[in-house]
Amino acid sequence: MNDRIEKRIELKAPVLRVWHALTDHREFGAWFRVALSGPFEPGRESVGHITWPGYEHIVWRAVVQAMQPERLFSFTWHPYAIDPDTDYSAEPPTLVEFRLEPHGDGTVLTLVESGFASIPASRRAEAFRMNDDGWGIQMENIRQHLEGTAAAAGHGG
Q1: What is the pLDDT of residue 149?
Q2: Could you tell me which residue ranges the Activator of Hsp90 ATPase homologue 1/2-like C-terminal domain spans (predicted)?
């Protein structure tokens, strides 16, 4: 099994616009489908509730690692942590990185989630599979958010 997920998408939006969609907690919440309690801040935990129907019971938690304007936004989290009766805090988190590169009038957005080899074997394959599928959906969600088309069907991460 691979230790990392990588997705890449060309967006018809300038880097600054994509940066805001990633790092403004309200905008991030709109396309990612999570209601966050406050702004992203490096070194701080971000908490919210998933808003996708059927997943509202899931508390979304991530610790912001880096916010390098218009270049890199990253956080760590516990992948596919969907069982409200399980304490995932003892598990090592994975690292999610969004990298932005100008491309003509638009932006190439690259998502990498790494660290799956450290996830307990009992849930590693399922966490990888679900996040691999989820990130494909989320990349489409941000594209549709930025380009103003109808919302994508699905949930992610």
Answers
A1: 61
A2: 12-147
Position 152 in a domain: no
Please choose, from the candidates 1, 44, 4, 2, the residue with its C-alpha nearest in 3D space to the C-alpha of residue 25: 44
Q: What CATH number does the domain containing 22 carry? A: 3.30.530.20
**Residue 71 is assigned to a structural domain of this protein:** yes
Question: Dihedral (C-alpha) 31, 14, 114, 94: value to the nearest 10 degrees?
Answer: -50
Question: How many residues does this entry show for the chain?
Answer: 157
Please spell the DSSP secondary structure of 100-135, one letter per residue. EEEETTEEEEEEEEE-GGGS-HHHHHHHHHHHHHHH
**What is the tally of structural domains in the chain?**
1
Q: Which domain holds residue 29?
A: 4-147
pTM of the predicted model as reported, rounded to 2 decimal places: 0.92
Task: State pLDDT tens for residues 56-94.
Answer: 989 999 999 999 999 999 999 999 999 989 999 999 999
